Every structure is written in structure tokens, then in C-alpha cells.
């Protein structure tokens, strides 16, 4: 599945030492229905673990997600 980041988000993630693998893990969890809130219109709130600290003190990001699977 392709995962896209905006230029702004990519710069922010690099400054925070947020690994691409952490983002991929978060996307994989979202595809399994594991997210904090469904904000509607394909927008979801998801916690991403801060390096060395875990999810409870991690980042809270809003992510757009489009399920392309046919029902």
C-alpha cells in the first residue's frame, strides 16, 4: 500500500527523529481498525510512539486514510 507524506510533515518528522518505520506501523494499525478517533471523511486521529518513550507520551497526529479495497 502506498503511503504519502506532505513535505511539511516529512520535515517535522525528521526534526522529531520519527522514523518512517514508525509511521508505517501506525498506518498498518489503522488498516486493522486501531485508531483513537474517526473524525469523518477519511480523517483519523492516531497516536504514534515517540522514540524511546512509547505511545502514551507520543505524538498525536491526524491522518487521512482512504481504504481502496472494494467491498
Written account of the structure:
The protein has 2 helices and 3 strands. By secondary structure, it is α+β, with helices and mostly antiparallel strands. The chain has one domain (7-64). Strands 1-2-3 form a 3-stranded antiparallel beta sheet, covered by helices on one side. Strand 1 (37-40) and strand 2 (43-50) form a beta hairpin. The model has no long low-confidence stretch (mean pLDDT 78).
Descriptors:
single chain, 71 residues, alpha+beta, three-stranded antiparallel beta sheet, globular
Largest sheet: 3 strands, antiparallel
Number of domains: 1
- SS element count, helices: 2
Radius of gyration: 12 Å
> Could you estimate the helical fraction of the residues in percent?
25-40%
Binned strand content: 25-35%
User: Given the C-alpha coordinates, what overall shape results?
Assistant: globular
Amino acid at each position: 500500500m502506498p503511503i504519502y507524506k506532505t513535505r511539511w510533515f516529512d520535515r517535522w518528522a525528521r526534526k522529531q527523529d520519527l522514523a518512517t518505520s514508525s509511521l508505517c506501523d501506525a498506518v498498518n494499525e489503522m488498516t486493522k481498525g486501531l485508531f483513537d478517533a474517526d473524525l469523518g471523511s477519511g480523517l483519523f486521529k492516531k497516536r504514534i510512539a515517540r522514540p524511546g518513550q512509547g505511545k502514551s507520551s507520543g505524538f498525536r497526529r491526524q491522518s487521512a486514510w482512504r481504504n481502496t479495497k472494494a467491498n
